[in-house]
Specification:
The chain has 14 helices and nine strands. It is α/β, with parallel strands linked by helices. Helix 1 packs across helix 2, helix 1 crosses helix 3 and helix 11 runs parallel beside helix 13. The chain starts with 13 loop residues before the first helix and ends in a 20-residue tail after the last helix. Bound molecules: adenosine-5'-triphosphate and magnesium ion (MG).
């Protein structure tokens, strides 16, 4: 057995995993805890198998994360993948079809894991697959008008095909996922210990939710969210078009909320790779000091809240706000740019206003010459 020649995985307890996630992911504490536990159990499972005492009686803790756009689902997965020393693949469910149709077979997900593991099968068998956009493979046959007639090639078939991966069976995996594959290059991979994390927005789920007066979550769980979404039940997901067998193989469910104004503010400044830090560093290279005032950051956050895209749109807004400054950075050397509410408003107005020729001569938001 090749597994015994390799080192056992790092010993990490859930609190350590969560602490690492906390550095990069703001809020979403329930999701971070659930992922930390799932990752911890996964490491336990791998150690047990490597020590020759596989945990046969314990089910895998595959996870389903549900939350609005830009709340950090993919970001959580990427962050987790960075510090767990395991093969980790992020797959987009919409790229897959059931076998025989144009598109990737689901085995390709495992093929990519194999690639990550430098073609070492036993190492790939310890990996983690994050399947994003699973809400897009819901059964939609009641409306589907596809070239395949009533056949729902995009959704239900992919869920069906994924069952064998999720539950842990031997599958035959193409070894050359980056090229067109030929018939001969398949290797058997056992998916028993591969952990699956799935995520989706299920954004129009409310259409399928039955009206309920009583909220399903306790008040404390919901307190942090600005506009608390009602708890999503198994029945809601079934109505939405997820298969019972598919859901049954994702026993850990986490519902993420939209980020609050204060959390969005933290997203801008706190993580080591935050957008503000990045632009501050960029400008520092030109000798320009970026001084961020809370009023300015809040103005950016409010703009993002208006767009309803969570943290996703904030980097673009910041880019718009700083465009002129970045453009003129070389000539601004030695100056301090104060990013306050007035600066943000003026910069956004300048960047979204009428085409340049039609505009009255603009004030200079960068150096604060008044408009005339
Ligand atoms: N909770 C968070 N903490 C820190 N940064 C975040 C958080 N949520 C989102 N971001 C930032 O916003 C970007 C977009 O978020 P992400 O891709 O995780 O959204 P998502 O929940 O996967 O949305 P979608 O359903 O649209 O895919 C991330 O790359 C990250 O920079
Ligand atoms: Mg995403």
């Amino acid at each position: 057995m090749t597994t015994l020649t390799r080192e056992l995985p790092k010993r990490l307890v859930p609190a350590e995993i969560k602490a690492e996630l906390d550095r990069y992911v703001i809020g979403q504490h329930r999701a971070k805890k659930a992922l930390a536990v799932a990752a911890y159990n996964h490491l336990k499972r791998i150690r047990a198998r490597m020590l020759g005492t596989p945990m046969t009686g314990v089910r895998k803790s595959n996870v389903l994360m549900i939350g609005p756009t830009g709340c950090g689902k993919t970001h959580l997965a990427r962050t987790l993948s960075r510090f767990l020393d395991l093969p980790f693949v992020i797959a987009d469910a919409t790229e897959y079809t059931e076998a025989g149709y144009y598109g990737k077979d689901v085995e390709v997900m495992i093929g990519e894991l194999l690639l990550q593991a430098d073609m070492d099968v036993s190492r790939a068998e310890q990996g983690i697959v994050f399947v994003d956009e699973v809400d897009k493979i819901a059964r939609r046959s009641q409306w589907a008008v596809t070239g395949a007639g009533n056949r729902d090639i995009g959704g239900e078939g992919v869920q069906q095909a994924m069952l064998k991966l999720l539950e842990g069976r031997q599958v035959f995996v193409p070894t050359n996922v980056t090229q067109h594959w030929s018939k001969h290059d398949f290797v058997p991979v056992d998916t028993t210990d591969i952990l699956f994390l799935c995520a989706g927005t299920f954004s129009d789920l409310h259409l399928y939710q039955r009206r309920r007066n009583a909220p399903g979550f306790s008040a404390t769980d919901r307190a942090a969210a600005p506009d608390p979404a009602p708890a999503i039940t198994e029945r809601d997901l079934l109505r939405y078009g997820m298969l019972a067998e598919f859901l049954g193989r994702l026993p850990v469910r986490v519902q993420l909320g939209a980020l609050t104004e204060d959390e969005l503010l933290d997203v801008l400044v706190k993580p080591p790779d935050s957008a503000i830090r990045e632009y501050t560093d960029l400008l520092r290279q030109d000798g320009v000091t970026l001084q961020c005032e809370e009023s300015g950051l809040r103005a950016i956050v409010r703009r993002a809240l208006e767009h309803d895209t969570g943290a996703r749109g904030m980097r673009t807004i910041l880019e718009d706000v700083l465009q002129e400054t970045l453009f003129r950075a070389p000539e601004l050397a030695g100056r301090t740019i104060v990013l306050d509410a007035d600066f943000v408003e003026a910069a956004l107005q300048a960047s979204t206003g009428a085409p340049e020729e039609d505009r009255p001569p603009p004030g200079d938001p960068v150096t604060r010459t008044p408009r005339r």
